[in-house]
Amino acid sequence: ALNAKGREEHGLLEGDTPRQIRQILRGKNLTPIDVNEVKEKSSHKSRGINTSRGRLKSAELALFTRQLATLLEAGTPLETALGTIANQQHKRAVKRIVLGIRSRVTEGYSLADSLQQFPSAFPGLYRATVAAGEHAGHLDKVLDRLADYTENSQEMQQKISAALIYPILLTFVSIAVVVGLLAYVVPQVVQVFDSIGQNLPVLTRTLIKVSEAVQAYGMVVFILIIIALVTFYQFYKREGF
User: Under a CB-based contact definition with an 8 Å cutoff, are residues 134 and 117 in contact?
Assistant: First the structure.
């Protein structure tokens, strides 16, 4: 770009389109000469970032929908509303998703089409509902209903999670108690039976065999249970059940 004295200046500016960059330059009393896009593929790969696979938690999706619905109902243009929401985000991943949507909207795509580049963040039903609202010309009202739906879903998910904590904890404690009995109490009882020299019932002999198995492989079983619980927890967080 050329400054007021006719000298060339070079630099980097952040924007959605070359047209927006030219407008920013003119606002700084600079005459744009050439605007080139700088791609950050290497930095994204080094960080393991793929915006097309970005995810939103249920709480983040509900908040995004409510904010967008409120701004559109207030008469804010879609592009401006998305920019406002992006500036309010503290998490980089969420901000990157919102800016990606805004960039597509700025290029002329509809909101539903812009959401399609983040299928992991916005479910198919969500995108279809937004598309229906755009076609009907009532996007603000549809988003308001969608915000109610996402908030209710999040609240229900929290209630289910809270309800599952107690039975899971109770099950874990029960298993720990049974394992403790088999590993430490039953062997002492077996010594008493051995001293008497009496024939034991089938059920008692089976219990003794289980106790011996727990003593021999108890640590392996414990590690497998821990791995299973951690795997289930990670799957639970990823799928957002």
Answer: no
